[in-house]
Amino acid sequence: MTYRSRGRSRNEAIAAIVFAGFLAGFILYLCVGNYQRAKRAMERQRKRRLELEEEKRALALSPNCGENIGTIDRRRRNNVGCGAHDSPR
Q1: At 32, which helix (H) or strand (E)?
Q2: What is the dihedral of CA 76, 82, 84, 85, to 10 degrees?
Q3: pLDDT tens digits along 63-82
Q4: Tell me, what's the pLDDT at 60?
Q5: Which of 8, 28, 53, 80 is the most buried (most CB within 10 A)?
Q6: What pTM, to 2 d.p., does this model score?
């Protein structure tokens, strides 16, 4: 069955095809934009994580904090160096 056999004109068929193409293109545009946004966020998170690991490494290796490593304070948290604490849980 064609569009013509259902009583639609050629212009209506073209309009339906154009609308479907526009709708599919718009959804594709949204998906690609979301993918790019997520990719940038993932890269920012990776950089932040690497910077944090580098800070932790620098704190653990700094010479003026060596005497605090492994001690327990009043709140029963483990000092890991330079005033940084592990969570009590």
Answers
A1: helix 10-61
A2: -10
A3: 765 555 555 545 555 555 55
A4: 86
A5: 80
A6: 0.50
3-state secondary structure 51-85: HHHHHHHHHHHCHHHHHHCCCECCCCCEEEECCEE
Exposure class string for 37-73: b at 16+ Cβ within 10 A, else e: eeeeeeeeeeeeeeeeeeeeeeeeeeeebeeeeeeee
DSSP 50: H
The residue behind tokens 């709140």 is 75
**Tokens matching residue 62:** 């700094």
Instruction: Quote the CA–CA distance of 86 and 72 in Å, as a whole number.
Output: 10
